[in-house]
Write a structure and sequence with these properties.
By secondary structure, this protein is mainly α. The chain is built from 12 helices and 2 strands. The protein is globular, with a radius of gyration of 24 Å.
Length: about 280
């Protein structure tokens, strides 16, 4: 007669010790959020909305919020559009998928600052692109490709596009190949099958990538500072300035909460659009 398989001897106390690191990290996070709220609403006179009034009463701050949301939205949509063909190629080439995925993720192995300076070399007034266009006779004077919103969009799209690729690819890999075969057997061509079958089923991954890139762009600091310059401020750079240069943690906390609210509203709008466009299927 075979011996019964050994049973687990782990006690609830032992499992509790294993969860202790995760609980500690969660406690630190919640503590940081609590301090954020405390700094934002607390002044020398007690609880107050003074810092929020300072932000909401200035027209130039409104422009910063508008620029932040618009750039984040443009980056999110651009990254999703550029990432979809790459994700589709990775899906269609399973033999080369791992190698191509490494190529997609290679930029993440390089420091963000180094990648951003690389775009300065390419897009600068005397950078590679302007010099090549001038040599070809296309332009006479350098194109303004950096220290403006265009440079920020290009840099952030390059940095964040792998998120969209991975999100879209993860959903494409779950599509049953028999659905395409059924579509083709009913007379649909390759493009029609993609438009009516593959694209609708892959939209959840597209919207997930849009959400990730949008939220990340909303709080970006390094790329907007280096490629946008001092005058083209975003909310993240404004928070950085309040902390590093003005040493005003309370106002920076108020900025962070305003940014958090805007990000939540943007994400809610994105989910509403997704619910309207993505087909209702049983998962």
């Amino acid at each position: 007669m075979r011996d019964a398989p050994p049973t687990s001897t782990a006690t609830p106390k032992a499992l509790g010790w294993l969860l202790l690191p995760a609980v500690g990290v969660l406690a630190l996070f919640l503590g940081a959020v609590a301090l954020l709220f405390l700094h934002a609403f607390w002044t020398k006179d007690g609880l107050s909305l003074a810092y929020f009034r300072q932000i909401l009463d200035r027209a130039d701050y409104h422009e910063v919020f508008l620029r932040t949301v618009s750039i984040a939205a443009i980056v999110a949509v651009t990254a999703a559009v550029l990432a979809y063909p790459i994700a589709w190629l990775l899906w269609r080439l399973p033999r080369w998928r791992n190698l191509l995925l490494v190529v997609v993720l290679v930029p993440w192995l390089v420091s963000l600052v180094v990648r951003t300076y690389g775009w300065l070399v390419i897009l600068g007034p005397k950078g590679f692109l302007n010099e090549a266009l001038r040599w070809a006779g296309v332009i006479q004077s350098p194109l303004p490709l950096i220290f403006n919103d265009l440079g920020v969009v290009i840099g952030l799209t390059h940095v964040l596009m792998p998120f969209s690729v991975i999100a879209t690819l993860s959903v494409l890999l779950q599509i049953d190949n028999r659905l395409e075969e059924a579509s083709e057997s009913l007379g649909a061509g390759g493009f029609e099958t993609w438009r009516r079958v593959v694209l609708p089923l892959s939209l959840p991954g597209v919207f997930t990538g849009i959400g990730i890139t949008f939220l990340t762009s909303m709080g970006a600091i390094v790329t907007p500072i280096l490629l946008g310059g001092i005058r083209q401020k975003m909310a993240g750079t404004q928070i950085y300035q309040e902390v590093v240069y003005n040493f005003n943690m309370s106002k920076a906390s108020a900025w962070a909460l305003c940014l958090l609210i805007l990000s939540g509203l943007g994400l809610a709008l994105l989910r509403a659009v997704e619910a309207a466009l993505v087909p209702k299927v049983d998962r």
